[in-house]
Design brief:
Oligomer: single chain
Distance between the termini: 19 Å
Radius of gyration: 13 Å
Strand content: under 5%
Structural class: mainly alpha
Largest sheet: none
Number of strands: 0
Shape: flat
Helix content: over 70%
Mean pLDDT: 81
């Protein structure tokens, strides 16, 4: 769970700075957030979470 929260915070921060620097428009940001939301409800959510956990485990070594 800690990995999920930290990744959400990291991606949220990146999205905030992209919007602030006008590198990303509001429509594209909304589309990216919607894609992430709908991706989380598919079968791809499990492997993505496992990959994030594996990366976190390697970082802790």
């Amino acid at each position: 769970m800690a990995v999920t929260v930290s990744l959400v915070a990291l991606f949220g921060l990146v999205l905030f700075f992209l919007l602030r620097s006008k590198s990303l428009g509001y429509g594209a940001a909304f589309t990216a957030a919607g894609f992430g939301f709908f991706l989380a409800s598919t079968g791809a959510a499990g492997p993505i979470n496992q990959l994030a956990a594996a990366i976190d485990a390697v970082k802790q070594l």
